[in-house]
Write a structure and sequence with these properties.
heterodimer, A: 273 residues, mainly alpha, 10 helices, elongated, B: 525 residues, alpha/beta, Rossmann fold, six-stranded mixed sheet, 18 helices, 22 strands, ATP hydrolysis activity (chain B), ATP-binding (chain B)
């Protein structure tokens, strides 16, 4: 673990963002729903560590609560993707070459054929803009990603002799998939999950930027960016801070994913030694 | 030409080689024999300058007087390929799967600035022809996946000799190949040495492979050369006890006499078994006729009998084994175990499935790396529920295969290849089956470990009254452990009979070819 700068940097950044988001559940420096026009556009310092926005709301508090909604959306979306994608991928691998495999994989191709963000906009446009619909839209596009990663990794395992031995012991495909296949591809899925998580945060920011994510007064990083756009010359800080939050979080999660891959993949571990 | 003197090597502080001194002259073949972990491959990598990180090398290493250890990485790169060539054990992974074989051979010439692209192409075609891949049958535009293992190894050889190296290092070049292919590759290497005058360092764990090929022989154990000299005299005199042990293991026969087969109906009956694989597309639209992997095979195994099944890779023996085990369905014919029909998958009742089990070839892929030994061995208990005395039976199975019951809580990566194969046998034994299918179960093991496992199998068979279906491409393995043998070629049984009779007096041309290809050690008078 000592010589893994990726893992450490990624862990520290992601950990800090998660801590701030968790902290906002119990404590924020100022109420983010209360408008205080008298205190608008305060520079950083004093009672407002990062200053206030055009409506007098505390930027730090906004960022903390915004992190919460970004993380919640991305996390649930990854959960949907894994929850549906991993079993589908395992089933496809277990029946490789069969009709089930064919159906699952062609459905995947179908979803992949649509541009993800445009369809997400379509879904939220039809169902109405809300955090819940953003989750749904992002989650659906995570399913084929996990299905494909799972199937690819599982196919390799199905050729191994210990799967033969399990078949000889009369174990069925479902049992073999959960007992022998899933634990041996878990590290790959963890890495994929971190990367999808960071993509989810990016997608949520994109959706709320165009007004299709969490609705006011709930703060979100994407909408903070959108609202700061008109004041980019007078108060650039209002755009820079949420932008920086997005970049740092995504960077941190990607580093974490990379680091986890190096740490968990036995092949890379051997090469490093 | 190449000279190693007092070569010592340690990897991360752990000593690997100690005082290794070797010499290979022009046109000479030096055999380097030893078991896995003895340091043979490390010696080869040290000469090539390809040691892993954390390696510390001492001593002298000279190529025609040039001190290789003083060269920089960049200079060593120039020596490698030009003066030193190397071929590896696994021809499946040594080639780039997306490059044509001609281009891969040509690349060596282009990288070293020896030829323009067009010249290199022509040279590559010539080289491929020389190693036995004539352009009319194997054009240089082929991809590696279109070739067999032996043909791929020929491509690797063509790459290694492209720049006419002074020394070629062959690290277990035939271990992954069938006996007949092995004989042809060894002939090719011998011919190339005689023709080009290069030196050859031939590394192997099997003395029989070296015996007909090497001029001189060095035997290595735990990083030291224990014996060295002209191959014929080293093999005849066997001065060092380790050499003696290796020779003995190579021709080993288990001593436990086979129990007399009890009367009664056969345990396994295979009648007119047929299985074909669906047609593959050739080009976009044309479908080839389905490939018949097993084509009307019939045989039986009596209770307590050990039956050998011999053939080259691709002859259908593993497909047949999968059908016998009820893993794949048959398209024709019938398999009966103990009078009941064997069906693939869930259609087979647990009661019947329990009566047989298998040991596979690869000791590394045979176990879930995340489970402990006790759980791995107990897997067959899934059939018919975990018995109340499961723990005692796990210990007993471990003891039966010569392992300490204390090992039950370890993970599989803590065991060597031979120990893993013992654990695989324990897993096959635990549900007390009648028939065990041994699919190349000892092919991946060193000769001495192989001898131990063969002894163990003979002993277990006598103790538990087991029947074996012993599948191998290696006749010497089958000779020592079976009463009857089937010879399989292209999905059909071409010869069948008592093992000794078939091996001493083969009737079919294919059996004769297999026998003459198998490397043998001559018994001294």
């Amino acid at each position: 673990m000592s010589a893994r700068p990726n893992l450490i940097a990624g862990g520290v950044i992601s950990g800090a963002v998660l801590t701030l988001a968790a902290l906002s559940l119990v404590w924020v420096p100022h109420d983010v729903t209360a408008l205080n026009i008298a205190e608008r556009l305060r520079p950083p310092g004093g009672p407002y560590l990062l200053g206030t926005d055009q409506l007098g709301r505390d930027m730090l508090a906004m960022l903390m609560v915004g992190a919460r909604s970004s993380i919640a959306v991305a996390l649930v979306a990854v959960g949907i993707g894994m929850g549906a994608g991993v079993p589908l991928g395992l089933m496809a691998a277990a029946t490789r070459g069969g009709w089930l495999d064919e159906i699952v994989m062609r459905m995947n191709d179908l979803i992949f054929a649509f541009p993800a963000l445009v369809i997400a906009i379509l879904i939220t446009a039809i169902l109405g803009p809300s955090a819940l619909n953003a989750i749904l839209a992002i989650g659906i596009f995570n399913i084929p990603v996990f299905a494909r990663v799972t199937r690819g990794a599982a196919l390799g395992l199905w050729t191994l002799d210990y799967i033969r031995a399990a078949e000889l012991a009369g174990k069925g495909r479902a049992r073999i998939s959960t007992e022998h296949v899933l634990p041996n591809i878990a590290n790959l899925l963890i890495v994929q999950a971190t990367i999808q998580f960071s993509l989810g945060i990016l997608a949520e920011a994109g959706l709320s930027y165009v007004g299709l994510g969490a609705q006011p007064p709930t703060p979100s990083w994407g909408r903070m960016l959108a609202e700061a756009q008109t004041m980019i010359y007078t108060a650039p800080r209002l755009a820079i801070l949420p932008g920086l939050a997005i970049v740092l979080t995504v960077l941190g999660l990607n580093l974490l994913g990379d680091g986890l891959r190096d740490a968990l993949d036995p092949r890379l571990r051997r090469a490093a030694r | 030409m190449i000279l190693l003197r007092d070569l010592g090597l340690s990897l991360n502080g752990r000593p690997v080689l100690n005082g290794v001194s070797l010499e290979i002259g022009r046109g000479e073949i030096l055999g380097l024999a030893g078991e896995s972990g003895s340091g043979k491959s490390m010696t080869a990598l040290a000469i090539m300058g390809l040691l892993p990180e954390g390696a510390e090398l001492r001593g002298h290493l000279r190529l025609n007087g040039l001190d290789l250890l003083s060269l920089s990485d960049r200079q060593m790169c120039r020596v490698r390929g030009r003066d030193l060539g190397m071929i590896f054990q696994e021809p499946m992974t040594a080639l780039n799967p997306v490059q044509r074989i001609g281009d891969q051979v040509a690349e060596t010439l282009i990288v070293h600035g020896e030829a323009t692209r067009a010249e290199a192409r022509r040279a590559a075609a010539r080289l491929l022809n020389r190693v036995g891949l004539p352009p009319d049958r194997f054009p240089p535009t082929r991809y590696p996946h279109e070739l067999s293992g032996g043909q791929r190894q020929r491509v690797c050889i063509a790459m290694a000799i492209a720049l006419r190296p002074q020394l070629l290092i062959a690290d277990e070049p035939t271990t992954a190949l069938d006996v007949t292919t092995q004989a042809r590759i060894l002939d090719l290497l011998k011919g190339l040495v005689a023709e080009t005058g290069m030196g050859l360092l031939l590394i192997t764990h099997d003395l029989a492979v070296i015996s007909g090929v090497a001029d001189r022989l060095a035997v290595m154990r735990r990083g030291e050369i224990v014996e060295e000299g002209p191959a014929a005299s080293v093999l005849a005199d066997r001065k060092h006890p380790y050499t003696r042990a290796l020779v003995a293991a190579s021709a080993h026969r288990p001593t436990t006499p086979p129990p007399p087969p009890p009367p009664g109906p056969p345990l396994l009956e295979v009648r007119e078994a047929r299985r074909s694989y669906p047609a593959v597309h050739s080009g976009l639209f044309r479908r080839l006729p389905p490939h018949r992997a097993v084509d009307g095979v019939s045989f039986g195994i009596a209770r307590g009998e050990s039956l050998g099944l011999v053939g080259e890779s691709g002859c259908g023996k593993s497909t047949l084994a999968r059908a016998v085990l009820g893993l794949d369905p048959l398209q024709g014919g019938e398999i009966r175990l103990d009078g009941e029909v064997v069906r693939a998958g869930a259609a087979m009742p647990a009661r019947l499935r329990r009566k047989m089990n298998a040991v596979f070839q690869d000791p590394f892929g045979s176990f879930n790396p995340r489970h402990r030994v006790a759980r791995l061995i107990a897997e067959p208990f899934h059939l018919g529920g975990r018995p109340s005395d499961a723990d005692e039976r796990i210990d007993a199975a471990l003891e039966a295969v010569g392992l300490d019951p204390k090992h039950r809580d370890r993970f599989i990566h803590e065991f060597s290849g031979g120990q893993r194969q013992r654990i695989a046998i324990a897993r096959a034994l635990i549900a007390r089956p009648d028939l065990i299918v041994l699919d190349e179960a000892v092919s991946a093991l060193d000769v001495r470990v192989r001898a131990q496992i063969l002894d163990l199998l003979a002993d277990l068979r006598a103790r538990f009254g087991l029947s074996y279906l012993f599948i191998s491409h290696d006749l010497s393995v089958v000779r020592s452990s079976t009463e009857r043998v089937l010879v399989m070629q292209a999905g059909r049984i071409v010869e069948e009979g008592a093992t000794e009779k078939v091996l001493h007096n083969p009737a079919h041309a294919y059996t004769k070819a297999l026998l003459s290809a198998a490397p043998k050690l001559k018994e001294p008078e």
